[in-house]
Amino acid sequence: MSASTSSEYPASAGWFQYTLPAPQASLEFVFNNGNGVWDNNNNANYKATSAGRWIVMSSVSVPAATKTSTPAPTTTPSPSSPASPTPTSTRAPTPTTPAPTPSGSCYNYNGIDSCSSSTQTELPAADDQRKWQTPPRNASGWSAEYQDYRSLTGYAHVVYGSSRTSATVTVRTYLRVASASCSYTFNGVKSTSPTYQVTNSLKDDLVIVATCTDGDESWKLELDPVNFVWQNNAVNQPSGMKGGQKGAIVDLFGWPYNDIAQECTDFLGKAGYMGVKINPPQESVLTDAWPQSGQRNPWYFVYQPVSYRLYSRLGTRKQLRTMIQTCRANGVRVYADAVVNHMSGGGNDVLSHRYSSGGSCVTWGAKSSSKKSPYYTHSFTYGVNAYTNAHPALEFPAVPFGPTDFHCERSMSSWTDPLQLETGWLSGLTDLNTETTYVRERIAQYFVDLLGIGFSGLRLDALKHIGPVDTGAIFGLLRKYMGGSSPDDFISWGEVILGGEASLLACNANSGYNFYTGLDAEYAANGISSTDIAKLKIWSSDYPKEFPICGSWILPASRFVIQNDDHDQQNEGSSSRDMGDSGSVLIKDKDVAKHRSFEVKLFTRTDADWQIKVVLSSYTWFTNGAGGFPDGYSDCSGFDSSQGQKCTASVPYEKAFRAGSCGYTVDGFAGGKYTRVHRDLSIVNAMRSWVGLSSVKLSDLGITGSC
């Protein structure tokens, strides 16, 4: 910008001019009065869209009073213990977008990136020019986990040979400066090629570093370690478990990795459980300074991913791998809850935010994450990024995902409209554009990483919102990357909540959005064999009251995973499924005998040939709604009050593992108590009989005394 040289529009009157250099043909901009007050043309931005002279005037208002408050931009989808550990601080670094004083209207950019029509689903290709928002190394707001994401991002792309005793690893890098050149090190060995061949002689991590240069500038990308399936401990299990295709899986909801490893060693293996499912292991939203409904880190933050890096509030990648190998050595397989429909909620990121409410301006600051990677959304933001000179855009550099890897913002108003189901922002969560090849590839590579570190399968969260076509394509890529087939013990189960849409989603094969025969057809079209299709199951939301939802078995019962209560049902007001009097949610009903009877029935009923059954082992909630994990990260004693906020719904730390514990340790349903349902002897023996094992006594399980 420069002072105006026009006598008609003199600089003394505040005019300035800007000549757009060729070959650029358009300009989008906002005004700032030099004192932190912004004007974005009523959320539309100012735009010059063709050649010629454009005359634009702005009138900015006096700043208004600001109210700092806890935001609610994203709603949730539908004995004495040792001293609490001291979690690493999750206070976010300084926001990377300027935070001007709110204008009189408390404007933000909401609406700019919304879908402009009922048929639009993608963001314009030009929006990719708004990425590269991360501060450069050592700039204000930069932190070590930001690496050189300002200019260089990437990931390791792994493709196995057909025997899965070798793999080709390719470093896929993405550069802000296209002319840069890159070199690589693989376990310290330098190479100019991004491709590296690995065999089963490699017994430990593959460590990769990419270094890219352009003139005097240099950027470095340090990738997380890569592990391979041949490095995993063998799992020895009874023949009744059919090599991982039949058995009971315990959902240890909110259990840290170290505690799970202890539970595998002390109990799960000898009890006869086939496996354990853990919460999403990927990096997710975490904050100490900005509570949600008075809670420090409610449970549903783990369902708001920031990246596919395996660093969770429940443990590091190293702790995860150690836990998995410990469980496998004790005859227990491990399954991941995978969140790939979306990333974090709009407004949950490292920026500053605001919106107008009741004449006040509600503001909140930067959130962090479980590995402190940078991440950006456009929701509730204002100002421009200091490095792109554009308003904030969707970007998750540690994946990496950019603006055009997402659907345009669309709220959901219909549960029978396939377009809304697949492309809408479920509860304000930033919806991935899984129709694109890159997004499909990146998700499939995340699954490859999960299998490489030792997982035997996964639950797919919100599968209904990914869609049958995209799901088939993603699993087709996984088949390809794993050498042409899935491992013998692999299983997955997708969350498809049927609600009142059973005809669309399940019963009508010609609905165009069918997850029974329709999804199977997509699997087959993507080269997946019938043997491997049988391993890809659907979570039975019609169990236990309404199955089979179509009146008869469209798919055999062996293709469905069943359980009594699930983690979503614990949330007050949840309508995820109606069990009526055919099931029981333990922490709501507060009736141990009733709940036990339904868990036992899960294994003793003989009316269908289900092969995978899940037992939820969770924790009790507080009457004030506090429902964060009792892992220490939801304990108000660790809250950072420097931003003037208050944590009012605390969940004190309790150690999840308790050697020799009985089941149903609910302590009168006091809040924050791990329930350990899976340790109940009646449930254990019902489960054992189902997989062809003999009954056991408490003493056989290491439990002394009576329960």
TrEMBL record:
Glycosyl hydrolase family 13 catalytic domain ranges (all copies): 247-688
Gene3D superfamilies according to UniProt: Glycosidases (3.20.20.80), Immunoglobulins (2.60.40.10)
Reactions the enzyme catalyzes: Endohydrolysis of (1->4)-alpha-D-glucosidic linkages in polysaccharides containing three or more (1->4)-alpha-linked D-glucose units
Alphabetized UniProt keyword annotations: Carbohydrate metabolism, Glycosidase, Hydrolase
GO molecular function: alpha-amylase activity; cation binding
Enzyme class name: hydrolase
Organism superkingdom: Eukaryota
GO terms (BP aspect): carbohydrate metabolic process
Segments for region (Disordered): 65-104, 118-141
Positions with biased composition (Pro residues): 74-85
Cofactor: Ca(2+)
Pfam families tied to this protein: Alpha-amylase
Enzyme Commission numbers on file: 3.2.1.1
Family label: Belongs to the glycosyl hydrolase 13 family.
Protein name: Alpha-amylase
Organism: Phytophthora infestans (strain T30-4)
